[in-house]
Design goal:
The chain folds into three domains: 335 residues, no CATH class; 218 residues, no CATH class; 178 residues, no CATH class. A hairpin with an 8-residue loop joins strand 3 and strand 4. The radius of gyration is 34 Å and the shape is globular. 47% of the residues lie in helices and 16% in strands. By secondary structure, the protein is of the alpha+beta class. The chain starts with a helix and ends with a helix. The protein contains 24 helices and 23 strands. The strands form three sheets. Strands 14, 15, 16, 17, 18, 19, 20 and 21 form an eight-stranded mixed β-sheet that branches.
Length: 803
């Protein structure tokens, strides 16, 4: 019997090739999108899931409270680790890890004196870090490998990269930043891609005492976002109980004026999704984005299933005689329902097969957009196989149940008397409702896409308050000898053809990294209740970036701080209405370590990505912290200029590796998440409208066949081609307008909530909604236009010759 069902189903599907193609193709695209979304979500939800003690691992984080509101940081003061070990011995383990970057030189081995610049994956870590986290070891003892100063652990790939093979790496030596010599004491397995700890090179934490960080190791106030503290809770300790201890802990150790700032604990399971604090992988995939992708996948499936329901119920009249004959010959309603369900299952099976091919074809494109390494392995992935099986079953039930009930429920007497019409089949109202649902979902996605794209264009084109064009940024070594070579290099660059301006600084005018601090102003004994963003730079910084002075001028050229330039926001925060009134007032950082008068005020500029409001900024000179050359170049003959810059840099620092980046590229990197979202919404909204129009084309094709004789009569009675086209398009136009009326308020509410997280954002104007309805109507008319025009221009004699 089952074999019979499928045999008849194949014949019916073959007989209605166009409808079968529309159903299979529409479903396959929807299913393919759903499969890819499943792979993305599964990957993002698996981060650091492989650690044995994952449910008991927490990160200590900082929460700063000041007059500007709440600010968050994943970093904590360095001495917190030692303090917790003494004051709260109930903790099973505490470990610190500090992220850095730099140059590694091989001292012995096959690649002796070869240099490698590592910008990611370099850390200082305590040995307890490997007691808390479950990273696999290939060589060395995880408890002792990082106990001694100047020891280092490498991953398998890095061991191969540096020494030819990780198997010979243990015992070898390498130099970090041409200064610190380390001995390889262990090799760990390559860290999985789904980890927020992209370890490559891990130095012993005790070596930090030899670096310039040494002065902060006992500082309970300064916080570095690169320094994280991880805790392993005992089984009986709750998050709430430990948080109640933290306030007492801070009161014991922190100066009273900083007790407004607090510490909090964050479960390991939340780290990957919390954009407030970030993580070491610099890849945050928020739970809101996971929810959005889940809903998009569900909506695309609904749209595809709606096509099937619409076409199946539309064909009900054509198949009514088949049902009537079957019932007369003894078929039960259950048997007929199973017959139609089997047809639906076959369509879904074909669609699933085609979706696998589509997924395999586009997965590399998706990896490029999301910067992932997903793979589609149907046979080797039991979870994917189970998901696809469940998906096929769910789609079969959802898309096939109603048509099966409608078709199997026809009365054989009415059928054989030809009294069944499309209205009696119960399909018209449903089809109208489903078309509205389809286009409402598609229009929500189009509006979302237009808002996200508009916000991205705003980010790219917004005035930042400085000139970012044609600025090349080249890192310079930070050791004491190299720092004092930078002025000479700067002067040589200024004499190079194609170089307009050069400045030295610690940061860009806008930067993802920040050095902020409170200060004392105008001999006040109390510190400010807000932090200033510190931009250490030389005097040419203002000319290079075209910063505009509104009062005073730049400080004198010097290696040390002799004056400060501040922005308008800082002037306003200090209560001045006239910028010139602040000139001459002294700013005192760190209780007298750095004191100088204000000599100038510049117009506000964005010192952080546009997600954040403009901060108070203080600019001063301090050669010891400069780490970057900012070079304004001419766009003409750029390649020759860049070769000249590289040659001069390498002559100045022959023991280091040269690299550079354009400032506008760096700024674009700040908006990677929004850029990814823009690309995804564009793709999925395009898929949604395409599937909707595919179903619309199928429906209009069926309707033109059903109404051929009506069209013939209308033409004989004088109807024009325009009248016929209007006849077929007016109903769909009305349905799309109704869908738009439902979609608009929902989309506005959703996207307004999304925009609210940005300090600077676009307004959702009428133009976005006008573009959405115009695009929806245009593609819908294109979908129905071809069939409508064809039937409108047909010869009425052919339609009526058999009457």
């Amino acid at each position: 019997m089952l074999k019979n069902y499928f045999k008849i189903a194949l014949r019916n599907l073959s007989r209605n090739r166009s409808n079968t193609f529309i159903n299979v193709f529409g479903l396959s695209i929807g299913i393919a999108a759903c499969l890819l979304i499943f792979l993305v979500i599964r990957f993002e939800k698996s981060f650091d899931d492989f650690h044995k003690n994952k449910d008991r691992i927490y990160r200590l984080v900082s929460v700063f409270n000041n007059s500007d509101g709440i600010r968050y940081s994943a970093g904590v003061p360095f001495p917190v680790i030692k303090g917790l070990r003494i004051d709260y011995p109930q903790l099973e383990n505490v470990a610190g890890i500090y992220e850095t970057d730099g140059l590694l030189t091989i001292i012995d081995g096959k690649k002796e004196n070869e240099k490698f610049q590592e910008d990611k994956g370099v850390f200082y870590a305590e040995p307890q870090f490997f007691d808390i986290f479950s990273f696999g070891w290939l060589s060395g003892n995880p408890r002792t490998a990082l106990t001694d100063p100047n020891s280092v652990v490498l991953t398998e790939d890095i061991g191969d990269k540096y020494f030819g093979s990780w198997k010979v790496a243990v015992g070898k030596t390498l130099k970090f930043d041409n200064k610190y010599v380390f001995k390889v004491t262990g090799i760990i397995k390559n860290v999985p891609a789904n980890s927020d700890f992209p370890l490559k090179v891990v130095f012993s934490f005790s070596t930090l005492k030899e670096t310039n960080i040494n002065r902060n190791l006992d500082d309970w106030v300064s916080t570095f976002s690169s320094f994280n503290c991880y805790l392993l809770f005992p089984p009986n300790l709750t998050k709430e109980k430990f948080e109640s201890f933290l306030q007492t802990f801070l009161q014991k150790h922190k100066p009273p004026e900083y007790l407004k700032d607090g510490l909090d604990v964050q479960p390991l399971s939340d780290i990957h999704y919390d954009s407030r604090f970030g993580n070491y992988s610099h890849h945050v995939f928020t739970k809101e984005l996971i929810t959005a992708l889940t809903l998009i996948g569900l909506f695309l499936l609904i749209i595809a299933c709606v096509n099937f329901i619409n076409l199946s119920t539309a064909q009900a009249v054509n198949r009514s005689r088949e049902v009537g004959v079957r019932k007369v010959l003894g078929s039960s309603r259950k048997q007929l329902a199973l017959q139609f369900i089997s047809e639906t299952f076959l369509v879904n099976l074909f669609a699933m097969f085609l979706s696998c091919i589509i997924s395999e074809m586009v997965i590399n494109y998706l990896n490029g957009i999301l910067n992932l390494k997903l793979s589609f392995n149907f046979f080797g992935d039991p979870q994917l196989l189970l998901f696809m099986s469940a998906l096929t079953l769910a789609i079969t039930i959802f898309s096939g149940f109603y048509p099966a009930i409608v078709l199997s429920g026809f009365n054989p007497v009415e059928v054989l008397k030809a009294k069944i019409t499309s209205r009696k089949s119960g399909g018209i109202s449903l089809r109208r409702g489903l078309v509205v649902v389809q286009f409402a979902i598609a229009q929500v996605m189009i509006i979302a896409m237009l808002v996200v794209v508009g916000q991205m264009n705003f980010f790219k084109n917004a005035s930042l308050g400085f000139n970012k064009n044609s600025i090349v940024q080249v890192p310079v070594p930070g050791d004491s000898i190299s720092i004092y070579k930078t002025p000479t290099l700067k002067n040589r660059l200024l004499g190079t053809s194609g170089v307009k301006d050069v400045s030295l600084s610690a940061f860009s005018p806008i930067d993802g990294s920040h050095w902020s601090s409170d200060f004392k102003f105008d001999n006040s004994p109390k510190k400010t209740d807000f932090d200033a963003d510190l931009k250490w730079a030389d005097v040419d910084f203002f000319k290079t970036f075209d910063l505009q002075f509104i009062s005073g001028g730049p400080f004198r050229e010097s290696d040390s701080t002799n004056g400060f330039v501040v922005n308008q926001t800082l002037v306003n925060k200090l209560g001045f209405t006239n910028p010139s009134d602040i000139i001459g007032k002294k700013i005192n950082f760190w209780d007298g370590d750095v004191v100088a008068p204000v000599v100038g005020v510049v117009k506000d500029f964005h010192s952080a990505p546009l997600q954040r409001e403009i901060s108070p900024v203080v600019i001063g000179s301090w050669i010891d912290v400069y780490g970057m050359l900012n070079i304004k170049v001419s766009v003409s003959d750029l390649s020759t200029t860049m070769l000249s810059v590289k040659k001069l840099w390498e002559e100045t620092y022959p023991e280091y590796l040269y690299n550079y980046k354009f400032l506008d590229e760096k700024i674009d990197d700040f908006y990677k998440t929004e850029s990814t979202l823009s690309a995804l919404y564009s793709i999925f909204s395009g898929i949604a409208i395409f599937i909707s129009c595919l179903g619309l084309y199928g429906l209009i094709s069926f309707m033109t066949i059903q109404r051929t004789k009506e069209v013939g009569i209308r033409k004989v009675l004088g109807a024009s081609a325009g009248n016929i086209i209007y006849l077929f398009s007016k109903e769909f136009t009305l349905l799309i307008v109704i869908a738009f009326a439902l979609a608009s308020p929902a989309a506005y509410f959703i996207m307004q909530s999304w925009l609210d997280k940005f300090a600077y954002r676009i307004n959702i104007g009428f133009g976005i909604f006008l573009a959405t309805i115009a695009a929806s109507l245009l593609v819908a008319w294109l979908a129905v236009g071809y069939r409508a025009i064809k039937v409108a221009n047909s010869n009425p004699v052919k339609a009526l010759r058999y009457e």
